[in-house]
What we know:
Layout: E1 2-8, E2 12-18, E3 23-27, H1 33-42, E4 45-50, H2 56-59, H3 62-69, E5 73-75, E6 86-87, E7 93-96, E8 99-105, E9 114-118, E10 121-125, E11 128-129, E12 132-133, H4 141-151, E13 159-162, H5 167-177, H6 182-196, E14 204-205, H7 206-212, H8 235-247
Parallel strand pairs: 3-4, 4-5, 5-6, 10-13
Antiparallel strand pairs: 1-2, 2-3, 7-8, 8-9, 9-10, 11-12, 13-14
The structure holds zinc ion (ZN).
Zinc ion binds at residues 53, 55, 109, 126.
Amino acid sequence: MYITNIIAYKDNYIWILYDENKKCLIIDPGEYHSVCNLCIKKKLTPIAILLTHHHYDHVNGVQKLKDIFQIPVYGPEETLTNGTTNIVREGDKLFLLNQLFHVFDLPGHTSGHIGFYVTPWFFSGDTLFSAGCGKLFEGSAREMHSSIKKINTLPPKTLICSGHEYTLQNLKFALSILPDNTALSLYKQQVEMLICHQKPIVPSMLYLERQINVFLNPYNFDFKGKLKSLLLEEEWYIFKTLREMKNNF
Ligand SMILES: [Zn+2]
């Protein structure tokens, strides 16, 4: 299996997973033009679309791709009006490209948000980003926190394929509250280098996220000053506070 992505709009990732027979899956097509161009260039034949949630920048290309390729669309119930043909939820398993895909419920960013796991990749949509996480539009902080903890139960070598490229901004926020953190500084330098050389930043490995993502494992970080007392709180509450701080960053 091979993976590639297309940047849509300004910072959206459309993920394309394909096998040696050139059959492919399209994950969260926010638009269709660039997907068609990539399929022509790489001689890929789409066999299905997977959707994580209903936001327009993840589903806008669905109808056109469905019309062109006549393929099924697997997504949460909230994407029914966006062209989903097969509703999936936690516990469902899909057998596509000769691989087993596990569906995870990930409420928080939207109420019906889901994720897909197929070893070694996890398609996290707008739930987990590299060094950050999605905003809470429909769900509560408790829900989003437990969705993120669920992702954290995956094997350390899992590759997180997120819905947006926000890594550098997320690292700037993290360093604003943890200015002495070496892992964060080193990763920021690495990301800046990758951007400079136009190299891909994602997927990022869960093992790395555990060290640089304050939303994934807040207790792992040595907060100082005003934030130090936050570590006495329950983890979901720390998560909520950090998320609110990031909103205002
Ligand atoms: Zn979204």
